[in-house]
Amino acid sequence: DLARACSPQQLEQFQKIEMSARQLLDLLNGLVNSAVADAGNLSVLEEPINLIATLQEIFAFYRTAAEERGLNFEAGLAADLPATMVTDPVKFRQIVRNLIDSAMISTEEGGVQVVVKRGKGMLEIIAKERGVGVAVKSDRNLCQSSSPGSEFLASEVRGGIGLTVVKEFSDLLKGHVHVQSRPGEGSEFTVCLPCE
Fold first, then answer.
1. 91 near 173, Cβ under 8 Å?
2. For the chain, how many helices (H) and strands (E)?
3. Regarding predicted confidence, which is higher, 108 or 82?
4. Alpha carbons within 13 A on the beta-carbon side of 107
């Protein structure tokens, strides 16, 4: 039994390694799915997931990543969230991961706040950061793979690719993405996904 054979510190390190391996696998799956989506051949798998456990696992990873960068990471789950949710497990994790990635990459100080709550038939995932922000003229095209603001996103926000994945996968899951941002003040990324 690994828990008995290792010290608490060693066990914690093994758990971090396992979590990182899962995140890497999700990332690779996301890249493959994104490429397939560009070809128009991506299918959607619908099955129940443990919503709370899935979110908490993702948050644990980013909490550690934020600490290593000297950033604050706050995550809140509404009390009325359903225990399970029918969705595509891989795409759901990719959406949440890329949403948080985009927020974290866009800020060099302060922190990131993530809130997950339930709307009317929708699950709302909101990631806020206080970083460089996005020019208003680029905001409407923020989640498109080719947009007039793509050069700005690549050099300043550096979250353009991740947000493209968020947009593509949200569309596949019949959801939508909304972005509010002001240069120098930060950004708020919101994803709404069906949740009956």
1. yes
2. 7, 7
3. 82
4. 25
